[in-house]
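In full, the data.
>
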Amino acid sequence: MIQPTAGIHHITAFATDPQANVDFYAGVLGLRLVKKTVNFDAPEVYHLYFGDAAGSPGTIITFFPAAGSRRGRIGAGQVGVTTFTIPEGSFDFWKERLQKFGISTTQVSRFDETYLHFRDRDGLQLELVERAAGPLNSWSFGGVPADKAIKGFGGALLYSRAPEKTGKLLETVMGLEKLGEDGYYARYKAPGELGNVIDVNVNPMDNGAGGAGTVHHIAWRAKDFAEHEAWRNLVAEHGYQPTPIVDRQYFHAVYFREEGGILFEIATDPPGFARDEAPEHLGEKLMLPDWFEPHRGTIEQNLDPFIVRVLKEDQE
C-alpha cells in the first residue's frame, strides 16, 4: 500500500526577466539558487530552482523565466497562492524587509493563522506564515540571516473550478486528511513537516490563463522510484490520465491534470540536486543533460546572462 504523500515536492511557475527573478527569490527572499539549467522541452528558456541550502524536497520553487513573456491571469486551474513557512518570531522581520524593498504587503487570516501576503515582480501571489514544524534553513544570503530564513513551503492555496472533486482527489488518492472548512476554504493536511497544508476554495472560481506571474504545476513527493511507479498506477486506477514517467535528472516525474483543472506532478525525492554538482557549489554554473551538451555553445548564446547578487538595499 502506498503511504500518503508527505506533501509538496516543488512548485513551478512562469516569469519574465531572469535577472529580476533571481534578484527577487535570492536577493529579496534569501533562497539559494540550487540549480541553473534549461527547460528540457524548450532549451532556449532557463529552468531555475530555488530552495533551502540543499534544495530539499518541500522547499523548491522553480521558474521558467523568459524576457518578453506574456502575463498570465491567476484563476481556477492553478495554484493561486504559494505559501512559505518562516521561523516563529520572524514575522515582523519579514514585514519590515519586504517594505524595505518597496513590496506591498497585506495581512490575511485563514484557519486562525496570520499570513503576510505579497506578490513577486511578475505578480505571482505569495505568502509567509510562522510555523514551528520543519527544520531551520541553514542558508543565509544578503540581509537574511539563517535564523530568519524561509524554511520551505508551508503549503499552497489551490484555485479549483471543481473544488469538491479536487478535495476528493487530495483525500482518496494523495492521502491527505481533511481538517475542516472556514467558510471560504477547505483545509487538507499531509503528514510531512513542510509543504503539508493545502487549502482549496469551497466555491468554484473563474478560470485563469497561463503566463508570467502564474503557476504552471504543483508537484507532490514520492519517497523513491518504486513508490513513484506505484503512484502512477494508482492515479490511472482512479481514472486520471498520467503521462509516462519522465527523467528530469534531479527527480523522476509523472504528470496528470485533475478535474479542477490544476496540473499535478508526482516527483521522486531522489536523486536530488547534488547528482551533478558538489553541494557547496550548487547553482553556480549552467548544468545541461547529456543530450544537450553537444549544443552548449548555442544554448548559452540564446540565454540572457544573470548573476546572483546582494542587492543595494542590503549594502546600505
Observations:
- The CA atoms of residues 19 and 306 lie 5 Å apart.
- The longest strand covers residues 42-51.
- The chain has a mean pLDDT of 97.
- The radius of gyration is 18 Å.
